[in-house]
Amino acid sequence: MGAARDEPPAVARRRVRRELRKARLALGLVQSDVADRLRWSLSKVQRIENGDVGISITDLQALLGVYGVHDEATVRQLTKDAAISRRQRWSVPAEYREHLTPGLRQLMQFEAEATAIRAYQPFFIPGVVQTPAMAEHLLGWFDKTLTDEDRKVRFDVRMMRSKRIIDHEDAPTYLLMLDEGVLGREVGGRAIMVDQLEAVAKIAQRPNVHIRIVKLSDGAWVGMLGAFTVLDLSEDPEDAVLYREDYATDAIEHDTKRVTFYRARFEDMWQRCYGEADSLRLISAQVGVLRASMIRGA
Fold first, then answer.
1. Lowest-pLDDT choice from 46-55, 112-121, 195-204
2. β-strand 116-121 against 240-245: which pairing, if any?
């Protein structure tokens, strides 16, 4: 795929690192071999291949020379990608950047290019399908670690991501897998939870969205993986990234074996979930239970 002028830097950077790694492996070289030949530190080679940094044109040319890559079209494309990978183009306003983690900034760039997104959440409704009230409640959990401005920005960004992934006309296919325990966990109180579940049921009607519930009897082993998201960037199964987060950290992972492992775990469990129609019935049933308890004042 050719690089568009407004393409996210993280996506171009990933394309460069994949091509460089493929060229190195084709020669049977390990990273230390490359470092020795160029008199670089091993960590520099690793950072470039891991996508942790953008690559300068000079360093790209040096690597292509070691790998014997001289095809004009290939060199031209990689040079263009390398330039984009170092460009400070963001999916959010400049004043938001300092309030977002590097992992979240990268995630947003990959979401903008994703063709399919597989998300698993064992604890609560994930950000891109949260109602404003649910998002505000969950961000309130971080009152000791985030400033008021941090939480405000992350709320705005969460709503932006929802529009891009759920509502946009060219939105990616979005597969969401929720643990059954999520339905019974009254996060934010019954009123907020009722509105949230009703919103999820409505979102599930969209043609690009598919939601399934993991059976309680099956949820323990996949739950040990924690929340994760696999983003496919093309039809090539290796052209994908993994996003993981917990209470304190989040990060994008590029390692093909790791991405493949998490995608396989998702697909295995997806087949064992309640079907989409039954999952929707379970969500609607829980809405009825919560509304009845609110009427009774229980």
1. 46-55
2. unpaired
Q: With respect to CATH, is domain 95-296 assigned 3.30.870?
A: yes
- Bridge pairing between strands 228-232 and 250-253: unpaired
The mean-pLDDT minimum among 2-6, 16-20, 244-248 falls in: 2-6
Tens-place pLDDT, residues 235-259: 888 889 999 998 889 999 988 899 9
Q: How far is CA 155 from the centre of its chain?
A: 17
**For residues 83 and 9, what is the distance between their CA atoms, to the nearest angstrom?**
9
How far apart are alpha carbons 33 and 193 in whole angstroms?
A: 56
Distance CA 60, CA 210 (A): 41
Q: Quick check: pTM over 0.70?
A: yes
CATH code of 9-85, in short, is 1.10.260.40
Residue intervals in the chain for CATH 1.10.260.40: 9-85
Name the nearest CA neighbour of 152 among 95, 196, 209, 110: 95
Nearest to 105, CA basis, from 114, 92, 94: 92
Every domain range in the chain assigned CATH 3.30.870 = 95-296
Q: Do 197 and 289 contact (CB within 8 A), yes or no?
A: no
| Token pair listed for 25 | 């492996």
Rg (CA), the chain: 22
Residue 86: per-residue pLDDT: 66
Secondary structure class of 99 (helix, strand, coil): helix
